[in-house]
Design a protein that fits this description.
heterodimer, A: mainly alpha, MetI-like fold, B: MetI-like fold, 12 helices, about 65% helix, globular
């Protein structure tokens, strides 16, 4: 099939006039410039001295390391990056594991009212966090109920404004726990498991494998594409979150790097744009690495299934 | 598809597997959603900590009361902003993806350069653009003032600021859209286009009659993910670039709110940004929830497919 497609395409390519080919190259270079131009600009500015940064000069300088070091240490970029890394890894791992478990339960187990349970999970796709922040803020930031009686009165009266909460503002829990479940993840794993022949599960059961054994030694190895795709989506999503950390985290030493960038911009009288650009570039690197590493799995596990 | 007989029978294991997901969704999505409705019926003040039940008064204020001109403008802006970002963004992305799909030497390098901004965040885009278009020290104005002798006030002129936010938002999303369009294009068999070419169809006709219809499921998917992006994710970009400002021109009756204030940005300002009135924010949250619900219904009605809103 591949060979046939190649031979069918080849004549078209050779028919193409050189002028058309040059035009395509020029347009491609132009579009690459539009896409990467602003980043190139940021990279170059991150290498310059303060005086050069404020001039229109676009010649790369030698101050990259110095700018990174200054941003990392005196502008707290190191702390922001550490916080973001902890949160992004925790949420990505948690979401993947929880979605795997729920997806498995939905496909391989007998559950009463299964469509309702699945619908209940899918319905949360209609609740973007950004819209929920008003309700989420009270729940996460308020003091914990002091007594069991208080807890009971809270639970039995969910229609009153939240009286208590988890008291998590300024801790990592606030930006990790609310995001551990994923309707997207459950959906992707369910779809994938349903495409695996059921006879495989039957065979595993006959061989004496319990559900856990089946999950770990058969389902997980067969789901690398879906796991990779989900990891990319979740890592990029969590790493790039802005509104919720901005609202809930008040202590700067717990803040994430996306909000931290804005803090670096607004420190002091004049913005140190060289440091800011260095920070912006560094903040881009972790999700970029994850995307590049898992790109193949992402394409096979998600991008192509999106149009089915 | 094996929707048939379940393999394992144990109820307890099944619930153990499901419970973490269900518990977190109930506590951190369903309960806050419910609370948005509850808070929308209260007059609350974040700073004073006071709270009083006022029924639908918050909604009345937003729709017919003193806040109505402001909120009407914000809703209108959100719609114009989202439509611009989605329509222009998808057209540019499709053009880039079709270029990247051409079989020319070095196409792998071109593709890589075009899809890597998938990982870009709205906040980083906002940060870079706020330096690039800084009126005094930004590269754009330094070059413009040298070459043409002009220095536009990108962030103070309402229409320029609006255009800049639209441009930055489109730019940020290019990588994401090109990834998906490119994947879809690579799945289209080349034979179809060739058959049309043999039948005498020119490039534009082939695009209209073959490529575009075959891409429509992907376009459908991208329209909704981009809508969610334009309505909610763009927040970080706006917060860093313009903070919702500047106030629109009074000649056009757009002086009731900052011209780059979208619905989610206004919700933030009312709830957390100094106004400290969670009730109005709650009411706006309810309006947005209903809007998302409406769009989802439309999407199922006309597409019958599942669309994922990013990391939800």
């Amino acid at each position: 099939m591949a060979a046939r497609t190649a031979s069918a395409v080849a004549p078209v390519r050779s028919q193409r006039r050189p002028r058309t080919r040059w035009l395509i190259h020029i347009l491609l270079i132009l579009s690459c410039l539009i896409v990467t131009g602003p980043i190139l600009f940021a990279i170059i500015k991150a290498t310059q001295t303060t005086a050069q940064v404020l001039s229109p000069s676009m010649i790369p300088g030698t101050e990259l390391w110095h700018n990174i070091k200054t941003a990392w240490q005196s502008a707290d970029l190191g702390i922001y990056m550490r916080n973001s890394l902890i949160i992004a890894f925790a949420v990505t791992l948690g979401k993947t594991v929880l979605s795997l478990m729920a997806g498995m339960a939905l496909v391989y187990f007998r559950i009463p009212f299964k469509p309702i349970v699945f619908g209940f999970i899918l319905l949360t796709l209609m609740m973007p966090t950004q819209v929920l922040i008003v309700g989420l803020f009270d729940l996460v930031s308020k003091q914990a109920p002091p007594t069991w009686v208080a807890l009971l009165s809270w639970i039995t009266n969910p229609l009153a404004p939240t009286p208590y909460g988890f008291n998590w503002s300024n801790s990592y829990w606030a930006i990790i726990v609310p995001f551990l479940a994923s309707a997207t993840g459950v959906f992707l794993f369910r779809q994938h498991f349903m495409s695996i022949p059921l006879s495989l599960a039957d065979a595993a059961k006959i061989d004496g494998a319990g559900p856990m054994r089946f999950l770990l030694s058969i389902l997980v190895p067969m789901s690398t594409n879906t796991i990779g795709a989900l990891a990319v989506i979740q890592f990029v999503y969590v790493w790039n979150q802005y509104l919720w950390p901005l609202v809930i985290i008040r202590r700067t030493d717990r803040q994430v790097v996306q909000v931290g960038l804005n803090l670096i911009i607004s420190t002091g009288q004049d913005t140190e744009w060289g440091l800011v650009m260095a920070g912006a570039i560094l903040a881009l690197i972790p999700p970029l690495i994850v995307f590049m590493l898992l790109q193949e799995q992402f394409m096979r596990g998600f991008a192509l299934s999106a149009e089915k | 598809m094996n929707e048939g007989t379940p393999v394992f029978k144990s109820w307890s294991t099944a619930w153990l597997l499901l419970l973490p997901t269900v518990v977190i969704l109930v506590i951190f999505l369903y309960y806050p959603a419910l609370q948005s409705f509850v808070l929308s019926t209260y007059r609350s003040n974040l700073i004073l900590g006071t709270r009083r039940f006022i029924g639908l008064d918050n909604f009345r204020q937003l729709f017919t009361g003193i806040l109505a001109p402001m909120y009407r403008q914000v809703v209108l802006q959100s719609i114009v902003f989202s439509a611009s970002v989605v329509i222009l963004g998808l057209i540019v992305s499709l053009a880039f993806a079709m270029l990247a799909n051409q079989k020319v030497t070095g196409s792998r390098v071109y593709r890589l350069l075009l899809i890597w901004p998938f990982a870009l965040s709205p906040a980083i885009a906002g940060t870079i653009f706020s330096f690039l278009f800084n009126p005094q020290v930004g590269e754009v104005n330094q070059v413009l003032s040298r070459v043409l002798g002009i220095a536009p006030r990108w962030l103070d002129n309402p229409l320029l600021a609006f255009g800049l936010v639209v441009g930055a938002a489109i730019w940020k999303e290019l990588g994401y859209n090109v990834v998906f369009y490119l994947a879809a294009l690579q799945n289209i068999p080349g034979e179809l286009s060739e058959a049309a070419a043999i039948d005498g169809a020119n490039a534009w006709q082939r695009f209209r009659a073959v490529t575009l219809p075959l891409l429509s499921p992907m376009t459908f998917f991208l329209v909704f993910t981009n809508l969610a992006y334009a309505f909610f994710e763009v927040f970080g970009l706006i917060d860093i670039l313009t903070k919702g400002g500047p106030v629109g021109p009074s000649a056009l009756h757009l002086d009731n709110a900052g011209l780059t204030t979208t619905m989610i940005y206004r919700l933030y300002q009312d709830g957390f940004g100094g106004n400290g009135s969670l009730g109005f924010a709650g009411a706006q949250g309810v309006i947005l929830l209903l809007l998302v619900g409406l769009i989802t219904v439309l999407q199922f009605r006309y597409g019958g497919r599942n669309v994922h809103y990013g990391g939800g």
